[in-house]
């Protein structure tokens, strides 16, 4: 495997439906670039955390994240919440 290849993972969490966030996509190289491009096109905040991506990439698509990752993923969702809130304030 080539070092330096970009990796990406996407998560989904529906508070009313899901017990915990689920992995919706993972990839490296061109697939990672496509995941990031789709996020940008849909104004989804992007957080870079190589260690977390490595752990998430080991999970299956639609797999609920394990309890050991709850704290790290909670920090990601807090980042997304703050970014989304800031974007809404900037638009007003």
Automatic annotation (TrEMBL):
Single Gene Ontology BP annotation: protein secretion
Gene3D superfamilies in the record: secretion proteins EscU
Keywords, in A-Z order: Cell projection, Cilium, Flagellum
KW Nucleus (keyword) present: no
Coiled coil: none
PANTHER family attached to this UniProt entry: FLAGELLAR BIOSYNTHETIC PROTEIN FLHB
UniProt protein name: Flagellar biosynthesis protein
